[in-house]
């Protein structure tokens, strides 16, 4: 199963972008070359790659679902699972 997490593109530098996943979590080196994203777009990220552009409402629904699924997990486990989905910590 493939899991991807939505984030907002806040900066683009060549093929890579800075993506804000909320709650102070920003990743600098998300590969954007597979999608036609621009600053302000929401993208689904899996293993450091943006795999799809989604609208803001879809992104919010995905974040709410993730929060529901991980609500009972310890904070460290939540962080570990998130990092596995989006591609590590920066």
From TrEMBL:
<dbReference type="GO" id="GO:0005506">
    <property type="term" value="F:iron ion binding"/>
</dbReference>
<protein>
    <submittedName>
        <fullName>HypC/HybG/HupF family hydrogenase formation chaperone</fullName>
    </submittedName>
</protein>
<dbReference type="InterPro" id="IPR001109">
    <property type="entry name" value="Hydrogenase_HupF/HypC"/>
</dbReference>
<dbReference type="Pfam" id="PF01455">
    <property type="entry name" value="HupF_HypC"/>
</dbReference>
<dbReference type="GO" id="GO:1902670">
    <property type="term" value="F:carbon dioxide binding"/>
</dbReference>
<comment type="similarity">
    <text>Belongs to the HupF/HypC family.</text>
</comment>
<dbReference type="GO" id="GO:0051604">
    <property type="term" value="P:protein maturation"/>
</dbReference>
